């Protein structure tokens, strides 16, 4: 039995990405003025950067799964899946560490506002992910080969 | 009685914190992805469903890493 051309999880990943983007906009809209009130211009930039970073770093997982699913049906699927998903995790952590260290001493950004907004965005993204997964209807046997698919 | 210093460490202990914040979630994500591959290999028609559950598992686990690292920068800012 060969794997189907498009795994059924693609729908969930796309919805999770869209939900994450909406949440990032919401966090930026709410957090921006708060950052401005707390620390002025650097606070505003910190809040916007924090919202963006939360979306990029958590959205990278869904994006990497979507990318890995392009290999579905090929012999390299499982290897490519493992490499892409785990590789994106490693790259993400390294980029996050480098960004955090570089931004730490910049005068134009308030790091306290940035990282607080980031944590709010991360926790919010988790809530969005759980909502998306729990509300998306998927059949138990969802990935039949093309000749046995009924949809 | 005289005290003598046998060994002295200098630097920032937060460096160890980076490692601690990364190693736990890395093990967690490795297990989650590895088990999903195992499940998909055994039962390919469940692949999509397993991936969806894996996605939630990864999201929660990696959030710990990001929050753990971000916390240091909040406290030292």
Automatic annotation (TrEMBL), chain A:
Q: Which domain of life is it from?
A: Bacteria
Query: What UniProt keywords are attached to this protein's entry?
Result: Membrane, Transmembrane, Transmembrane helix
Q: Where are the transmembrane segments?
A: 47-68, 80-101, 113-133
Q: What is this protein called?
A: ATP synthase protein I
Report the source organism: Naasia aerilata
Q: What is the lineage of its organism?
A: Bacteria, Bacillati, Actinomycetota, Actinomycetes, Micrococcales
From TrEMBL, chain B:
User: Per the annotation, which location comes first and is thus the protein's main one?
Assistant: membrane
Q: Where found, per UniProt?
A: Cell membrane; Membrane
Q: Which InterPro entries match?
A: ATP_synth_csu_bac/chlpt (IPR005953), ATP_synth_F0_csu (IPR000454), ATP_synth_F0_csu_DDCD_BS (IPR020537), ATP_synth_F0_csu_sf (IPR038662), ATPase_proteolipid_c-like_dom (IPR002379), F/V-ATP_Csub_sf (IPR035921)
PROSITE patterns on file: ATPASE_C
Which residues are annotated as site, described as Reversibly protonated during proton transport?
Answer: 62
Q: What stretches pass through the bilayer?
A: 12-33, 53-75
Key words, A-Z: ATP synthesis, Cell membrane, CF(0), Hydrogen ion transport, Ion transport, Lipid-binding, Membrane, Transmembrane, Transmembrane helix, Transport
Q: Does the keyword Glycosyltransferase apply?
A: no
Coiled-coil spans in chain: none
- Residue span, V-ATPase proteolipid subunit C-like domain: 15-74
Membrane topology listed for this record: Multi-pass membrane protein
Superkingdom is Bacteria
Q: Name one Pfam family in it.
A: ATP-synt_C
Q: Which HAMAP family match?
A: ATP_synth_c_bact
Query: What family is this?
Result: Belongs to the ATPase C chain family.
Functional note: F(1)F(0) ATP synthase produces ATP from ADP in the presence of a proton or sodium gradient. F-type ATPases consist of two structural domains, F(1) containing the extramembraneous catalytic core and F(0) containing the membrane proton channel, linked together by a central stalk and a peripheral stalk. During catalysis, ATP synthesis in the catalytic domain of F(1) is coupled via a rotary mechanism of the central stalk subunits to proton translocation.
Q: What is this protein called?
A: ATP synthase subunit c
Species assigned in the record: Naasia aerilata
Name the encoding gene, please. Answer: atpE
């Amino acid at each position: 039995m060969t794997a189907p051309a498009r795994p059924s999880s693609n729908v969930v990943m796309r919805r999770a990405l869209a939900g994450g983007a909406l949440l990032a906009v919401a966090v930026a809209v709410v957090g921006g003025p708060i950052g401005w009130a707390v620390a002025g211009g650097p606070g505003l930039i910190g809040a916007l950067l924090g919202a963006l970073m939360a979306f990029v770093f958590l959205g990278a997982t869904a994006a990497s799964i979507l990318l890995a699913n392009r290999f579905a049906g090929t012999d390299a699927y499982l290897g490519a899946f493992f490499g892409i998903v785990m590789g994106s995790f490693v790259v993400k952590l390294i980029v996050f560490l480098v960004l955090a260290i570089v931004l730490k001493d910049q005068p134009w950004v308030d790091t306290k506002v940035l990282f607080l907004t980031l944590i709010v965005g991360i926790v919010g993204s988790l809530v969005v992910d759980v909502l998306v997964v729990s509300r998306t209807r998927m059949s138990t046997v969802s990935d039949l080969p093309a000749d046995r698919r009924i949809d | 009685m005289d005290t003598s210093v046998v060994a002295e460490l200098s630097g920032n202990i937060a460096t160890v914190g980076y490692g601690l914040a990364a190693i736990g979630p890395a093990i967690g994500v490795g297990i989650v992805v590895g088990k999903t591959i195992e499940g998909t290999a055994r039962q390919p028609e469940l692949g999509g469903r397993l991936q969806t559950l894996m996605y939630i598992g990864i999201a929660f686990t990696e959030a710990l890493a990001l929050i753990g690292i971000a916390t240091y920068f909040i406290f030292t800012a």
